[in-house]
Amino acid sequence: MSRFRNRVDAQQAHILSLRLALGLLTLLCLGLWFGWQAAPRALTVHVPPDLRAGSTRLWWDIPPENIYAFALYIFGQLNRWPSDGEKDYPAAIQALNAYLTPACQAFLDGDFAYRKSAGELRQRVRGVHEILGRGYSDDPQLRVQQLDHNSWRVNLDLNADEYLAAEPVKRALVRYPLRVVRYDLDPQRNRWGLALDCYQDVPQKLQLPGDPP
Asked: InterPro entries in the record, alphabetically (predicted)?
């Protein structure tokens, strides 16, 4: 009789061990499922524009070429008024708000109000483009300077042209020192993961060699 009782006790102990193992596997699966759900579904990796040579970098690192391209594109779109600055300027600010920090958007809204009150927008056509020979450079002091882990200074040397009723009213060569920051807030609307924080310093007029003083 004791032999059968020992066998029954052994089977019950084995069943209990299996139940414990099943419980541990269930907890492990729940932990793996939670980690899988918490993992990011999209990861932005910045690749240098020139792909003729290989590139090895950390996934969070952003090449200076991409910083420069971002600043040039966003700033160029903000200053592109194809028909009437009084309508085109606020429309550009609104369309690009995902690429602007709140402080920069407030600054641009104030700039729009000031220009409008000064009569500098109505029927104005404006555009900016790179000065020939003043594009991207690997020199960090000249074009892209990293300020810290999450911010950069970008110097854009641009030709700014404005027209009123097809008549040129302003043509200037200007260096715009812009501030770009890391901005991973809304990847659906901002795939760059960057934002323009307006000016790092006061813009400066440039004079090319050969120009009259």
From this structure: DUF2895
Higher pLDDT, 41 or 95: 95
Domain assignment present for 19? no
Residue 184 inside a domain? The answer is yes
Rounded Cα–Cα distance for residues 99 and 23 (Å): 49
Q: How far is 159 from 210, CA to CA, in rounded Å?
A: 16
Q: How far is CA 21 from the centre of its chain?
A: 48
Q: Where are the alpha helices (DSSP H) in 39-189?
A: 64-78, 85-95, 102-117
Any residues with CB less than 8 A from the CB of 171 and at least 6 apart, and which? 159, 160, 161, 162
Q: How many domains does the chain have?
A: 1
Q: At what angle do helices 85-95 and 102-117 cross, to 10 degrees?
A: 170
List the structure tokens of 29.
Answer: 């699966």
Assigned domain for 199 exists = yes
Phi and psi at residue 138, to the nearest 5°: -75, -10
Backbone torsions φ then ψ of 28, nearest 5 degrees? -65, -45
CATH number at residue 95: 3.10.450.230
pLDDT digits (tens, 9 = 90+) for 17-57: 888 888 888 888 888 887 777 766 665 666 655 555 555 55
Q: The domain containing residue 77 runs over which residues?
A: 64-205
Residue 9 covered by a domain: no
Residues 77, 79: Cα–Cα separation, whole Å:
5
